[in-house]
């Protein structure tokens, strides 16, 4: 089987079915369906697989909303406008299942588990905690224990054809170049899961004290727990057809269903909004390092194609795919910042606090100095004014969060990473002609300047909720703030020059 797979990858054999044919009459289980990637995947399945039987979405009640209400809310966004307009009947194929990845056994009712075991043929496991500062018990419980519990459920699925686990390219350490294969496990995953499940209930304080020792070379609990999860998937590969897809930095959609869809402030998006709002003026990262970003819709295409390939492969070691650019559109972080500044001139935010003029540095001492003068000092002044006018101060608290986010991201943005994606691109090469419109990546055709401009436009519309009709007014405000910035900048440098000249005059002519 392994030799046959290697031969097909080398020769570029086409898939034995179109995607629509593969999913005809099949039932799918999706975890993480309320997340960014999960919702884009859900939309693609509903739109491009018209004869899919049922899509079960695992959700938990949250913020006073039932699972049915949560499903309605996650569908009530522009992302699903295409489905509502062209395939409204597809929405009737959705069924919500109440569960919780943070609880033992996914908190599934046995009746629901039986239905899933009898009907599901494809599982997409996307549910994860992506917070870098989660306690070890939380990260391992959601990212590793839940993976094991879902795989255990999958062993009961009599019709299972593919189990696709979505991981991350950053789940391995010790080097900067990574291939599409499993790397050494972070630890004995059975012992770690047992420790978390036992100590987490009996003595969580002791577990927190042991966290640094358990993590070893891993910089946070997220990357550590995702590494464990990959090896749990591998453990079940002799009983289940499994595959692993590792995205790099997932950003807004490039094309499908439209350019610029984004629904969260995670990662670079939050910092981009902060900079555009005039709150972030310095960043702790290397402007000369390369960033490996991948549009969300391309990740989703890879996930779907991975399920088809896993079904063809069957049992055996998991196929590992890295959804990454891998140098196809290499771009430095400094260039991304320049593009963002250029885009902000065309698509500024309406209520920005100051003119967007942030820069980045890899010098930690310089970063601290800039953060103090450009972040903390203005925050103290603004919060004092807010307090004086009877309003709630907020900027100092926000700057604490910005500083925390920058330091947590520093491990990833102070160096360049190289993720091989040969096998990931091979999926695209084996597409049937009928699937090229819906599932072709076309990574080589993505123009960074146009892509990030679309991403900023989507951020204005879908995250900040600004109307396009307000854009002329926002541009006028942007120009006013730029003028104020130039005046203040000129006054600042003039003051510095005056101080220097005055000091020199005193030293040279004082008696």
Number of domains: 2
Structural class: alpha/beta
Rounded radius of gyration (Å): 25 Å
CATH fold-level assignment of the largest domain: Rossmann fold
Supply database-style keywords.
511 residues, alpha/beta, Rossmann fold, 2 domains, 7-stranded parallel beta sheet, two-stranded parallel sheet, 52% helix, 11% strand, oxidoreductase, NAD(P)-bd_dom_sf, lipid metabolism, alcohol-forming very long-chain fatty acyl-CoA reductase activity
Describe the protein's architecture and organization.
This protein has 511 residues and is an alpha/beta fold. It folds into 2 domains: 2-262 and 293-325 and 417-447, Rossmann fold; 333-414 and 460-509, no CATH class. Helices cover 52% and strands 11% of the residues. It has 19 helices and 13 strands. It has helices at 2-11, 19-23, 36-48, 67-75, 81-86, 110-119, 136-154, 189-202, 204-215, 221-235, 268-276, 296-313, 333-346, 364-388, 395-413, 422-429, 436-439, 448-463, 471-509; strands at 27-31, 54-59, 94-98, 120-125, 162-166, 177-178, 242-247, 249-251, 282-284, 293-295, 319-323, 359-361, 418-419. The chain has a 7-stranded parallel β-sheet with strand order 3-2-1-4-5-7-11, with helices on both faces. A two-stranded parallel sheet has the order 6-13. Helix 3 links the parallel strand 1 (27-31) and strand 2. Helix 7 (136-154) packs across helix 8 (189-202), helix 7 packs parallel to helix 10 (221-235) and helix 8 runs antiparallel to helix 9. The mean pLDDT is 89.
């Amino acid at each position: 089987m392994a030799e046959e797979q290697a031969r097909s990858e080398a020769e570029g054999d086409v898939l034995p079915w179109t995607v629509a044919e593969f999913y005809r009459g099949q039932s799918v289980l999706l975890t993480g369906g309320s997340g960014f990637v999960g919702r884009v995947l859900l939309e693609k399945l509903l739109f491009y697989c018209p004869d899919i039987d049922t899509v079960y979405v695992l959700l938990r009640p949250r913020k006073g909303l039932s699972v049915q209400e949560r499903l309605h809310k996650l569908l009530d966004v522009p992302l699903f406008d295409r489905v509502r307009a062209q395939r409204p009947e597809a929405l009737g194929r959705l069924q919500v299942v109440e569960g919780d990845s943070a609880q033992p056994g996914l908190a599934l009712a046995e009746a629901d588990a039986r239905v899933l075991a009898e009907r599901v043929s494809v599982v997409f496991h996307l549910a994860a905690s992506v917070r870098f500062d989660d306690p070890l018990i939380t990260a391992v419980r959601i990212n590793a224990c839940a993976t094991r519990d879902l795989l255990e459920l999958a062993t009961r699925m009599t019709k299972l054809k593919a189990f696709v686990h979505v991981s991350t390219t950053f789940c391995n350490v010790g080097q900067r170049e990574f291939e599409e294969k499993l790397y050494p496990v972070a630890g004995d995953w059975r012992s770690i899961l047992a420790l978390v499940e036992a100590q987490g209930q009996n003595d969580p304080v002791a577990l927190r004290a042991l966290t640094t020792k358990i993590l070893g070379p891993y910089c946070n609990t997220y990357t550590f727990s995702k590494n464990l999860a990959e090896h749990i998937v591998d453990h079940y590969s002799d009983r289940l057809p499994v595959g692993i897809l590792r995205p790099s930095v997932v950003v807004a959609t490039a094309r499908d269903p439209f350019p610029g869809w984004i629904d969260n402030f995670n990662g670079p998006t939050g910092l981009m909004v902060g900079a555009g709002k005039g709150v972030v003026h310095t960043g702790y990262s290397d402007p000369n390092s390369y960033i490996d970003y991948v549009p969300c819709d391309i990740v989703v295409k890879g996930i779907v194609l991975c399920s088809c390939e896993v079904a063809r492969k069957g049992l055996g070691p998991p196929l590992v795919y890295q959804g990454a650019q891998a140098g196809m559109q290499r771009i430095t972080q400094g260039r991304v910042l320049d593009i963002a500044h250029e885009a902000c001139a065309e698509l500024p935010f309406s209520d920005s606090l100051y003119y967007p003029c942030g820069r980045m540095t890899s010098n930690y001492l310089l970063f601290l100095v800039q953060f103090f003068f450009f972040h903390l000092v203005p925050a103290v002044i603004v919060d004092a004014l807010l307090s004086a006018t009877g309003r709630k101060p907020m900027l100092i608290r926000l700057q604490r969060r910005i500083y925390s986010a920058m330091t947590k991201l520093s491990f990833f943005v102070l160096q360049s990473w190289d993720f091989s994606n040969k096998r990931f691109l091979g999926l695209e090469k084996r597409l049937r002609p009928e699937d090229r419109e819906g599932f072709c990546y076309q990574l080589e055709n993505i123009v960074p300047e146009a892509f990030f401009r679309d991403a900023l436009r989507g951020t204005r519309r879908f995250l900040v909720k600004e109307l396009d009709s307000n854009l002329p007014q926002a541009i006028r405000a942007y120009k006013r703030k730029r003028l104020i910035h130039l005046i203040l900048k000129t006054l600042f440098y003039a003051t510095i020059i005056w101080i220097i000249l005055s000091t020199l005059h005193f030293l040279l002519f004082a008696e």
